[in-house]
Design brief:
The chain is mostly helical. The chain is built from seven helices and no strands.
Length: about 200
């Protein structure tokens, strides 16, 4: 009896593994087809928007990378080019946000460098990491209410207690905790959306 159950479990596991491979192969085939049929068009569309050959090529490639690293990608796609332009537009918004953050951060660094003679300028790698963190924080804040934004910044960045925040916002401590949970959920959602899956476009 035990041996029979073991055999059944193995058969089910093999079936599940085979199905997973088939789904992955089907997704890869669809993505390759989408890429071959639409990359040139998308690149041209972006080039008109951005007026730059190299940057438009980067965004076009990033569009397909976003699809590759997204969960359930292509399942709800109805019209390929509308789907691609929607993703590309979001990437352009992300790119503009990052550029604004970079400009503001570099301007602040320049002022700090002027005011403090002994200030050691960060390396390009440190600047890149800082801007990436700032970008993630902005993404989190954009999805929160005004009170939740304040709670997130004051608790996690400025280190204030929940009691102090609750008093200043004229809400209960329990409500502040709810704001913080909302922020953490938003952080997790962003992390899940941006987590790489380890595949490549062939």
């Amino acid at each position: 009896m035990v041996q029979m159950i073991t055999i059944i479990i193995r058969i089910i596991s093999i079936h599940q593994f085979t199905t997973m491979l088939a789904d992955k192969r089907n997704f890869q085939q669809k993505l390759n087809q989408l890429y071959s049929q639409n990359y040139t068009w998308l690149h041209a569309w972006l080039r008109k928007k951005m007026l730059c050959e190299h940057h438009s090529a980067d965004v076009a490639q990033d569009t397909f990378v976003r699809i590759l690293t997204s969960k359930n990608a292509l399942k709800n796609m109805r019209e390929a080019r509308a789907y691609l332009t929607s993703i590309a537009k979001n990437l352009l918004i992300d790119r503009a946000r990052r550029q604004r953050l970079e400009q503001a951060y570099l301007a602040e660094l320049a002022l700090t460098y002027q005011d403090f003679a002994g200030f050691s300028a960060p390396s390009p790698e440190e600047i890149y990491q800082t801007i990436s963190i700032l970008e993630q924080v902005c993404l989190v804040l954009e999805g929160l209410s005004a009170n939740a934004q304040q709670a997130f910044i004051r608790h996690y960045i400025e280190g204030e207690t929940q009691v102090v925040i609750a008093k200043d916002l004229a809400v209960s401590t329990k409500m502040v905790q709810k704001y913080l949970v909302q922020a953490l959920v938003k952080c997790r959602q962003i992390a899940d959306c941006q987590a790489p899956q380890g595949d490549s476009i062939e």
